[in-house]
TrEMBL record, chains A, B:
Keywords: Acyltransferase, Amino-acid biosynthesis, Cytoplasm, Transferase. It is an enzyme of class 2 (transferase). One of its GO terms (molecular function) is homoserine O-acetyltransferase activity. It is found in: Cytoplasm. One of its GO terms (cellular component) is cytoplasm. The active site is at S181 (nucleophile), D345, H378. The keyword Transmembrane does not apply. This is Probable acyltransferase. The lineage of its organism: Bacteria, Pseudomonadati, Pseudomonadota, Gammaproteobacteria, Oceanospirillales. Its main location: cytoplasm.
Amino acid sequence: MAPTRQTLFAATLCSGLGLLLASHLWAWDGVVEKQTFAIDSFTTQGGETIPDVTVGWEAYGELNDARDNVILITHFFSGTSHAAGRYDPDDELAGYWNAIIGPGKPLDTDEYYIISSDTLVNLNAFDPNVTTTGPASINPDTGEPWGMDFPVVTIRDFVEVQRELLESQGIESLHAVMGASMGALQAIEWASAYPDWVERLIPVIGSGVANPWLLATLSAWAAPIRLDANWNEGNYYDGEPPTDGLKEALKLVTLNANHWQWANDTFNRDWADEDRDPAKDINARYAIEQTLDDIAAARAEVSDANHFLYLVQANQTFMAGHGDSLEAGLAAIEAPTLMLYSEKDLIFPPEGVRRTAELIEADSTDVTLETLEGNRGHLDGVLSIDQASDTLREFLQ
Amino acid sequence: MAPTRQTLFAATLCSGLGLLLASHLWAWDGVVEKQTFAIDSFTTQGGETIPDVTVGWEAYGELNDARDNVILITHFFSGTSHAAGRYDPDDELAGYWNAIIGPGKPLDTDEYYIISSDTLVNLNAFDPNVTTTGPASINPDTGEPWGMDFPVVTIRDFVEVQRELLESQGIESLHAVMGASMGALQAIEWASAYPDWVERLIPVIGSGVANPWLLATLSAWAAPIRLDANWNEGNYYDGEPPTDGLKEALKLVTLNANHWQWANDTFNRDWADEDRDPAKDINARYAIEQTLDDIAAARAEVSDANHFLYLVQANQTFMAGHGDSLEAGLAAIEAPTLMLYSEKDLIFPPEGVRRTAELIEADSTDVTLETLEGNRGHLDGVLSIDQASDTLREFLQ
């Protein structure tokens, strides 16, 4: 968290960046400290009260004295607050948007205070770097995990927790809010609900409403969890969790978040086990199946099945402004908007992105649409974000 | 089955078609008789023996004396032999390609003998109009259902059963073989394995190999069945079948076989139950979820879960020619080929269709590629086939 003082020597090593860095006395060193933020009692948009809400957060760069250099990053379905940097310098992987967040990068930590928090019902409930409140949390009224008694929470509830976090730091405006996928929904909701806060809006691979295709896709994701006998209506915290169902759910997420070009470019028809021919053994399978299972199994280890179901619901219920009219919800947005998307996106198809842009633009709000290329489709919004570096740099100025 | 004599009066009612009809003494009346074909002992490509194989079949039009006016129709994953007509004149629905099969239609029953059979391991094992042999059939050696002891069967095995059926009728050549999706795989396999039989090849919404994307998609379809505790490693015939898992599997088929445009054009964000708001009730859902569930539940009633798994395997193992090389498998095809496909197909993406066309064409075999338009994607190959009527008529002459 704390910026590290750089020597002039280190700064000048950075050739073209030297002068820029030298004008600051410090630069963020890429090491992130995860912190927590607590709310004694949180009331959901649905009118339910949740005591002892705690979420994790992290920030890159320094909050200026005017507290007006804030960029809020909102995370995707299976994501966390970890958008950039490393918790430990030896961490193999940096945060998911590390390509665009850092000293001299488009989201320049020398200039901006970039903050991100774990949502409520964060999927990665058992990741030691994640703090969230959801069905796996203890309900202080019973001393037991909430399970399916946890109130339904919405994208707007995620926004409200973020607002309280920001206000706790004396922040009352956002230079920008930017997020991918479910993060785009939060960013759009921010700009719609709090137009006075949000100066720039950057929804990436997301649109203003969960359209019927997304409702059905999310429904399919949730199904394997409810099918797993271990799920037991959400009461599994003192027994075996529904790991098999959760793995299948996570496998669908991986498959849908990618494009068929990725699968066909990356994999072949190899068998998972070279001694077991799927044409002769009904339980034999292909390497791509095994790989997708292995990815899902690794993710399942730190994920909670009930949290998954609550995230599905939060995404399904999303419509900007949460009123009766998408048009009104998007017309409420006043911030200049940059929408980044993929024409190959199978979760938030381009038609919905363009419709969202049209409705934001309808009352003359500036909207820029830009595509991300790649063979990942939806995931290019996370993995190929550096393509938009110049656009982002310019848009943020 | 039996052609009905038409009066000259009826024929002349058909204006432009009058002369054509009058030149025949009969026309197929659209009523279909389902028949069965039995093989005492069938040996799979994998070298396993299945006694007492029986499949259903039906035909439209009359076999000519030269037995050279045959068009074989091969069915899709969830399909049956019922490509045209009605089993009973009062049936609400006709066969799936009724739009192009009939008197005066592109697949003209006044000219061709059009035959179609249920595959091995047909999904609709409990449909009274379907006859198939698979895991739900009794293994004569044990007197019990085969379950997962049934041998793995492949697309080539489906072709071999069809060949025996045709030979039983004295047929040794095909004016054309045409099929959609899994039917396209069978058609391609026919033309690759028996180039001397096949005079014209018409693969619709299918390609020459199950590419990695399809392997993964089929894997996702199978997963809910194996997750259902009632599946019990395939031993459920004397207890509760894994209906919930089968329903979810069938739901994924419906979703993947359509395009997002269909979902967004057809459905809205209505709740399934107007009194239960998904933003307040974690078990509440949207109308589109309920509709997809209802469709799946209706299909599950006549479907068998193990048959579903065997069909998944048959599709996954498919590569034309079943050798080591797709190039060789497709080069073996000599029949002029008409490939109909959708640019929006999410099961057999257009890239794979075009690649198949290139490989068939590589040794100068004629290939025509034509797209089907619509908002269904893959399913436009079934539902929008009439768009290709003129092309089909010309190609078959």
